[in-house]
Structure formats: structure tokens, C-alpha cells
Amino acid sequence: MQTFDRATLLRDLKSYLTFLRSYGYTDIPLESNSSLNADSRNTDEVHPLNESTQPQSAMTKQTPAKKSTVPTLENIRTELGDCTRCKLSSGRKTIVFGSGNPRADLVFVGEGPGKDEDEQGFPFVGRAGKKLTEIIEKGMNLHREQDTYICNIVKCRPPGNRDPKEEEISACKPFLVKQLQAIRPLAIVALGKPAASTLLGRSVPITKERGTWHEFEGIPLMLTFHPAYLLRFYTLENRRAVMDDMNKVLKKMKG
Known about the structure:
The chain is α/β, with parallel strands linked by helices and 255 residues long. It has two domains: 1-66, no CATH class; 73-254, Uracil-DNA Glycosylase, subunit E (3-Layer(aba) Sandwich). Helix content is 40%, strand content 11%. It has ten helices and six strands. A hairpin with a 2-residue loop joins strand 5 and strand 6.
């Protein structure tokens, strides 16, 4: 007859209790005439199913809590790692993942880092970034870091600040999607044609469709001009158009 030493029995028991707990069982009853072996002194070697030391009258099963399948921004950044999934990695100095409040009600999505962003590792910190901050804080009366989250469709700087190529967007888009799923904001603003086209999965004529509402995975999505476009074409008409778009966003967020 096969025999087992105490360490093996305790290990097997621990495994079985863990198995039961994974199925939602929290208590195992003892018969009224049963008792624990007084020689079993190392009781901490076996993890109980709950913290109660009182025997229960019957085995109970609770519905196990649902585990969230949505990763956190920290998890996503860890998964991204020192990314080499596309050719942009060879020319970058820094991965520009995103910045702001991970629980923000409003997310801005741009196209990609520029020179200043590549140097500092944060999105929208150059001239276009200052214009975006002005729109958020002066125009919308929000706090950039506390009330919004800002990221791009690609995390590495395209050479010469050109638009990202299709294969570069394809390599980076899964991380953008996970970011938006993790934050789950009340509204998303796509800044410019590349961001709008990426989120909608089609080529977007931004001058015709800015100011219109769409959806991304059930989240309201507003299309507007990129701040860099405003700097190049700094007309009263364009500035009013962007502020009209942002007022629509504020109204949508207020419900």
C-alpha cells in the first residue's frame, strides 16, 4: 500500500482547497464527532478557505466575483515594453505612451509624437501641445492633467513629423484601443485626420466631418482639427470651429 509523508499530504490538501475556493466554496463543515489531530501543529501550512475559525453547519457556495478582463494603463505600458514592432522604433529617443488622469472623462487622441515629445516622453508638449493646453484650460475650463488623458495613435515619432504609415498604425493601434478601454471616458476627441481615420477605420475628410459625433466602441467620438492645423491656419473661423466642437463635447459630458 502506498504511503505519503505529512508534507505531501499537506501539499495535496492545500491544492484541493485552492481548487474548491476557485469554484466559489468558502466553508467546509466538520461532523459533530470529528476533531482535528492534536499533532497537527503547523496549521499555517494550509490556507483556509475563509478567515473564520468556526466550523459551519453546511457547505456553502458563493458566486465567484467576476474578474475584470480590462488591463490597467500600467499593464498596457508593461506589455508595450521597449517596443520594436515597427520601423519607427529605430529612430525614436523615447516611447510616448500618454499622460493625464487614468480615470479621465475626456480623452484626446492625436497622431504621433513630434521632436519635443520624443525628447521629453510626454504627448503634446511642443507648440501644438501648448495650443491644446490652452483649448483645454482656457477654452473648456478644465485641468489638463486632472480632467483629461492625452495619447497618440502611434507611440514613436515619425521621421520629419510625417503622418504615420499604415503598417505603423497597425502595429500600435492595439495599444491605443486598450488604453481607451482601460479609461472608458465619457467622450473621445480625435485631433486631426490620422486620429479620426484610425478610430473610425476609414479615410476621414476632416474639414468636412469635424464637429460631428461618431462612436468608438460605444463611446461618443468628436472629430476636430489638430492643434498644429490651427497654428498653420490661425484664422478666426478655424478657432471658432474648434471651440464650437469643444462646447459640444462639454455638453455631451454633462449629459
